[in-house]
Amino acid sequence: MFNNLDEIKKNYGIKEGSDWMKLKDGSNKVRIVSDFVDYGVHSVRNKGKYKSVVCIGKENGCYYCANGQPVKVQFLGWVIDRADNQVKLLRIGWTIASQIKKLQESEEYGFQDLPPYDIDIVKSGEGLDTDYNVIPSRKDTPLTPEEEEMIAETVKDPREIIEKMKEKAKSSVLEEIDSDEELEELSADEI
Ligand SMILES: [Zn+2]
Description:
By secondary structure, the protein is an alpha+beta fold. It is built from 5 helices and 8 strands. The protein has one domain (5-188): Replication Fork Single-Stranded DNA Binding Protein, CATH 3.90.198. The chain is 25% helix and 27% strand. The chain is globular and about 50 Å long.
C-alpha cells in the first residue's frame, strides 16, 4: 500500500509537494481556492475494509455499476490547509458540499465563484456517525501574493485529475483509498 506515491502523483499530473488533505477530528480550517468538481465512487468492501473506487461509468463498463452497486457523489477541489498553509487536494462528500452551497446562496456569506473567506470544517463522530459542520469565518481575508503564487503553481483543473483517476481505474483497479473507518465521507482519506 502507498508504495508508489511518486508515480501516482506523476500519473495524475500532481506537482511534487502537493498533497491530499485528510480531515481530522475537530477543526479543519481551509480556504477554498478552486472549483469543486463532482465524480462518482463505489464503496467496496475488501478484506473487511471499505475502500472507495472511482466509478468509470456504466457506459465504460464499470464493474461495480454492472453489479448494481450504488454510486456515491464526491467532489474534488483545491484548498489551502490553514494548518500549514499548503495548497492541497481535498475530497468532500455531499454533507460538506451542500453546506458550502448554502453559504454561497446566503445573504450574509454569499459569493460568486470562490468564498473570500476561510471556512472551518468541523468533523465529529466516527464511522457511519461521522458528521461535518462547515463554519464560515466572520471576516473576509484577501489571499496574499505568496498564496496567489502558490495557487498559480499548484492548482490545476480538478476535472483533469478526475479524468486521470478514471483512466487509471480503467486500466487497473485503482486502490485510491483504503479505509476502515470512513463509510459516509471517504473524502477524509489520503490517497
Ligand atoms: Zn460505477
